[in-house]
């Protein structure tokens, strides 16, 4: 029941609305086409040069494709939900697999053209040493035994393969401000939460190497708004009468700036790590 209305169970809707959104899409696709030698449409070739000029936008796009290596291979998204990311990765040339526990979400994910396995985590049922990339987007905090989960990722990766992990940051400025009302806690769905240090230690303990902390994205405004709704006893995912005071908006924007500059206090941790070639 805790996941019956989870957001990744919805149908995908990737349609960009309005002229500005359409132009942004074309620039984004132009940037991705140049980076991944793909053929996304519609696109502007100028996106190759224009997008990197807007640093935060480039960071956001790189995060959306989960910092994929530029040479395509075989990818599995564990906890793939409705398959939205698999749809993107396939367009960038990757052979895509997904693991999903919920039947409704898995059925939607199959529409992406990916091979979907109905399974849990860490008991995925995936073949050993088969994948070049494993992605875990806000998944590891949902499992009872994250160490066993990382060991399973290690098992299914090829030597030299990469894991990409995104998860709420227990050391975030938002958690420090809102405490038990912080959006990232999300009981009862989130079971184990990490700091940057503890997640890095867990990856190294699972025999991963070359752990890299990816740049922070501006997320505090969303986290603060949701946390404020929780503090008022409201559903954080539904817009209600509680609006965010201008003073708190300013605090959130400052928190984002501080996190980007210092690379600490981010609302979300994003790490990549490698399975050693000799493993």
Spatial order of the strands forming the largest sheet:
3-2-1-4-5-7-6
Biggest pleated sheet = 7 strands, mixed
CATH class of the domain at 66-215 and 268-274: Alpha Beta
CATH-wise, what's the superfamily of the domain at 66-215 and 268-274? Vaccinia Virus protein VP39
CA(first)-CA(last) distance: 40 Å
Question: Could you give the count of β-strands?
Answer: 7
Number of helices: 10
Structural class of the helix and strand makeup? alpha/beta
Q: Mean of residue pLDDT?
A: 92
Percentage of residues in strands = 15-25%
Which fold name is given in CATH as the topology of the domain at 66-215 and 268-274?
Rossmann fold
Contiguous uncertain segments of 5+ residues: 1-7, 9-16
- Indicate the percent of residues in helices: 25-40%
CATH architecture of the domain at 66-215 and 268-274: 3-Layer(aba) Sandwich
| Cα shape | globular
- What is the string of helix and strand elements? HHHEHEHEEHEHHEHHE
Protein architecture, described:
This protein has 279 residues and is of the alpha/beta class. Among the domains are: 18-53, no CATH class; 66-215 and 268-274, Vaccinia Virus protein VP39 (Rossmann fold). The protein contains 10 helices and 7 strands. It has helices at 19-36, 47-50, 55-64, 84-91, 103-110, 146-156, 173-178, 196-205, 220-231, 246-262; strands spanning 74-78, 95-100, 115-118, 131-137, 157-168, 209-213, 268-274. It has a 7-stranded mixed sheet, with helices on both faces. Strand 2, helix 5 (103-110) and strand 3 (115-118) form a beta-alpha-beta unit. Helix 9 (220-231) packs across helix 10. The longest helix is centred in the first third of the chain and has 18 residues, at 19-36.
